[in-house]
Amino acid sequence: MRNLEDEIGRKLAEAEVAGQLAAGRGKPLEVDTAWLQTPPGLRMAFQILKSAGVPPAEVELFQQRAQLREALAVAADEPTRLRLQRQLAELEQNIAFRLEALRRLGQG
C-alpha cells in the first residue's frame, strides 16, 4: 500500500511541476436549485453528465410529458383525448417511479 501512495505522490509532484495543478484552473461548481434538489449521492454523477452535455434520461421524459400536455390541450375529439390522457398517466407514473428510484439510490 505504501508503494501506491508513493507513486501517487510522485505523479502529483510531476503534475504540479508541469503546471497541471495550477490554482484557479477549472470552473467552480454552480450551486443552483437543481443541485440542491438532487440527492447528494447523485450530485456528482449528474454534474459530470451535465458537463459532458448529456442530460439524464429523466429530462427526455419531462419533455415528452410537456408534448403530451400540449397535444391534450388542443385535442379535438374524445377518442384522441382519452388516448392522450392514458399515455400521459402512464408517462407520469413512469416518471414518478424513476424519480423515487433515483431518490433512494442517491441516499444509499
Which descriptors apply to this entry?
single chain; 108 residues; mainly alpha; 5 helices; 75% helix; elongated; DnaJ_homolog_subfam-C_membr-28; DnaJ family domain-containing protein
Give the secondary structure arrangement, pairings included.
Elements: H1 2-17, H2 33-37, H3 40-51, H4 57-74, H5 78-107
How would you sum up this structure, described in words?
There is one protein chain. This protein is elongated. The mean pLDDT is 85. The longest helix is centred in the last third of the chain and has 30 residues, at 78-107. It has 108 residues and is mainly α. The chain has helices spanning 2-17, 33-37, 40-51, 57-74, 78-107. Helix 4 packs antiparallel against helix 5 (78-107). The protein has one domain (30-107). The protein starts with a helix and ends with a helix.
Helix content: over 70%
- Output the number of helix runs: 5
Count of extended strands: 0
Low-confidence stretches are: none
Derived structural class: mainly alpha
- Give the distance, in angstroms, between the N- and C-terminal Cα atoms: 28 Å
SSE string, helix = H, strand = E? HHHHH
What portion of residues belong to β-strands?
under 5%
Shape: elongated
Q: Sheet bearing the most strands, described?
A: none
Q: How confident overall, as mean pLDDT? A: 85
Alpha carbon gyration radius: 23 Å
Please indicate the count of domains. Answer: 1
